[in-house]
Amino acid sequence: MRFLAKLAGLLIGLSFTHGACAEAQRWVSVGGALTEWVVAMGGESQLVGIDSTSQHPSSIKSLPSIGYQRQLSSEGILSLRPKILVGTEEMGPLPVLEQLRAAGVKVEVFSAGADVGALQSNLQKLGALLDKDALARDLSEQYTQHLDALHAWVAQAQLHQSAPRVLLLVSHAGAAPMVAGTGTVGDWLIKQAGGRNLATHAGYKVFSAEAMAGLDPEVLVFTDRAQMGSSSREALLRENPLLAATRAGRQNRLIELDPTLLVGGLGPRLPDAMQTLAKAFYPADTALNAKVLPAQ
Q: What is the mean pLDDT of residues 178-202?
């Protein structure tokens, strides 16, 4: 059973035991992963607005958008009459957050850190705000169990194959890509799936095609914020033709990733994405591939 299916199972039959205070709150959520957790924990009915990085689940797409998380406007947010703004430390600018606080909006800042400790802290805090402490603990435990199961599978796969050399690229319509370095969700995702990230810088950094080709990755994981599908792959190679000469390009090991997975810290869809990446990183042993399952 996949992680998201387990998450849905935790919510089936859940009684609506929100306190009167929680029921009266109007929320605006900023940061894709955080918004997904709000929904997963039963808070969707309280949402009155979301930012542009909040794209999942599809049921929230009809909500008013307040724009990009780093370019918020107090006027747009206040027009929705929220009681609470939840977002990660990536949201801003800071003067807007101060204006919202001065207007009486409770601003709750969560970690965007790419580590399980940050996620556990976020879930605990979100559980308290939604009066769902027990559910928060269950979701945290399920996440950890899934990671443990994946790590065990990767360890077995690495008995047959060494960790592949990987670059994760974030581009816009194939333009000069930013490469995911240390401290990013992209770096965390690569390593959890058993890859070796060739980028050693911190954060995201623009690389030239020559620099990327010089690293000669065995696998290219790429995400395009403007488009998806074959068009995004074509745009990447058209704008960066030297990538076709890398081992990843020659062996057709280019893996597309949903860009919304990389925003707002560790989200509920990442375990399934890690499983997909791990199977792509270690494709040789089909028997191992068949055993990629979340912990029961």
A: 96
Query: What's domain 3-139's superfamily in CATH?
Result: Nitrogenase molybdenum iron protein domain (3.40.50.1980)
> What contacts 258, CB < 8 A, 6 or more positions away?
223, 228, 269, 273
* The pLDDT of residue 227: 67
Query: Which of 168, 191, 222, 48 lies closest to 116 in space, CA to CA?
Result: 191
- Domain residue ranges in the chain: 3-139, 162-283
Single-letter amino acid, residue 272: D
Q: Return the SS3 of 266.
A: coil
CA angle 181–119–180, rounded 5-degree value: 10
- The DSSP secondary-structure symbol of 87 reads E
Q: Greater confidence, 204 or 3?
A: 204
Query: Are the beta carbons of 291 and 26 closer than 8 angstroms?
Result: no
pLDDT at 4 over 90: no
Neighbours of 112 (CB within 10 A): 22
Task: Judge whether 69 and 52 are in contact, CB under 8 Å.
Answer: yes
The DSSP bridge pattern shows strands 27-30 and 254-256 to be unpaired
Q: Tell me the CATH class for 162-283.
A: alpha beta
Choose among 147, 84, 145, 136: nearest CA to 114: 147
Q: Render pLDDT for 266-285 as a digit per residue (tens, 0 to 9).
A: 999 999 999 999 999 999 75
Please report which confidence band the pLDDT of residue 7 belongs to, taking 50, 70 and 90 as the band edges: low
The phi and psi torsions of 221 (rounded to 5 degrees) equal -100, 125
pTM score of the predicted model:
0.85
256, β-bridge pairs: 222
Task: Please provide the size of the chain in residues.
Answer: 296
Q: What is the pLDDT of residues 74-89, one digit of tens each?
A: 999 999 999 999 999 9
